[in-house]
Design brief:
The chain folds into three domains: 88 residues, Rossmann fold; 209 residues, 3-Layer(aba) Sandwich (UDP-N-acetylmuramoyl-L-alanine:D-glutamate ligase), CATH 3.40.1190; 132 residues, Protein-Tyrosine Phosphatase, Chain A (Alpha-Beta Complex), CATH 3.90.190.20. Helix content is 35%, strand content 23%. It is built from 17 helices and 20 strands. The strands form three sheets. Strands 7-8-6-9-10-11-12-13-14 form a nine-stranded mixed sheet, with helices on one face. β17, α14 and β18 form a beta-alpha-beta unit. α1 runs parallel beside α7.
Length: 447
Amino acid sequence: MNNNRNIVLLGSGESGVGAAILAQKQGYGVFVSDFGTIKEVYKLELNKRNIEFEEGQHSEEKILAADIIIKSPGIPDKAPIIKKIKEKQIEIISEIEFAYRFTKAKIIAITGSNGKTTTTSLVYHILKNAGLNVGLGGNIGDSFAKQVAEEDKEYFVLEISSFQLDNCTTFKPHIAILTNITEDHLDRYDYKFENYISSKFSIAKNQTEDDFFIYCLDDEVSKKYLNQFDIKAKLIPFSYYQKLEEGGYIEDKNLIININKNKFTMPTNELALQGIHNTYNSLAAGIGAKLFNVRNEKIRDSFQDFKSLEHRLEFVATVKGVDFINDSKATNVNSTWYALESMIKPTVLILGGVDKGNDYTLIKDLVKEKVKAIICLGKDNEALHQAFANEVGYIVDTQSMEQAVNMAYNIAEKEEVVLLSPCCASFDLFENYEDRGRQFKRNVLNL
C-alpha cells in the first residue's frame, strides 16, 4: 500500500477516472483536477467512491504537492500547469503506464497512424472467441486502469496513442503492433515528423528478446526508421506485396500467416473486412493471435464474423440510390487516402475540421480520379480550397453537419456515394469524431 503518497489526476475522462479508482484501491491519496467541466457520469463515479475532485480550474498548490501526476493524453506538454509540474520534477505518467504497474497480464498493444482501432478490435474479437480471459482498453473500450482495479485479466488488448506512449516509462507489451506511420498530430510534436516517429517506436523501447514487434514492411516510414531504434524484440513483418518466410502476406488472393512453420491460409474474399487497408489490419491481427497460439479455425471464424466499427467506413443508408458512408474516424490524410482508395463509385466528399499540419498532396491524385465534389465542413477551410480547387468541379463551404449532408445529397446522383472522411480533427464544430459521425448519421436518416 502507498498510504503516504499522493496522486493527482489531470483530466476526468474515462482514463482519468479509471486511474483514480485504481490509485484509491492501491492506497494513494487521490485528487482529480479538470480545467474543463467534468461529465455527470464521472462525477457520480467519483462521488460514489469519495474521491476528491475539482472542475473549471487547476489548484496549483494541491497539484504541485503530488508525488505522481497522471496526465490525460489530451493535455499538451506546453500547457502552463504541465510546465510548472516539470519545473518541480514531479513524475508525470499516463493511465496506461500506471495500470501496467499493477497487472501481471500479458499485453498486446497496438499503435500506428491508421488502422489501430480496427486492428485492436479484431485482435480482441479473436482472443475472446478463442476463450481467453481478455480485456479491451487504451483508446477503446473501458479504462485499462479501472479494469485492473476491479476485474484484472490474464490478457489485455490495448490501443495506444502516441500521446499515451509519451508518458510511459516501464510499460512493456509482450506483443507490440505498429500498423504504419504517416504525418499526424505534428502540432503536438513541434511540427517535426521525427519526433512523432520516435514516439510511435517507443512502444518497443522496454521489450526484450522474449517479446515480439509486428510491423508493416510496405510502410516506407516504418521500414526506413526500424534500424534507428534499438528494438530487442523479435521482428515479425507483414506485407501485401511481398512473400515472407515468417510473418503475414498475400499470395494468389489468399491471406497467409506463417509463424514458426505453422501456416494459416484464408481466401481474402472470405474476410469480413474488405479493402487493402483492412487486409493489412487482418494480417497484423492474425499474426498477434498466432503468437498467442490461437487455433487456426478460431482465427478463421473471427475473420469471417467480425463486425466493422462505428465511424470507420461505416455504411449508413442508401437514399434514392445515393450511398452514405460514415468515416468520421478519418482524422488524418492517410485515413482519407484509404477511404478514397476503397471507393468504386463517383464520390461527393465531406472534408474539414482542425488541420493538424496536413499534407493534402498525398490524396490529390485520388481526389482527381474519384471525387466529383468536395463539401468543406469547418470554421477555416482555406487550406482545403487551396489544395483542391483545381482538382474537382465543385467545392463549397458549410458550417453545420445538417447543411453539409443536405448539400452533398443535392449534388450526388443515383449510383454515387456521399463519403464523410474529414481528414481533420473535429474540435472546431463537434465534441469529438464520434459526435461528428453520429450527427452525420442522424442527418442522413432525416433526409
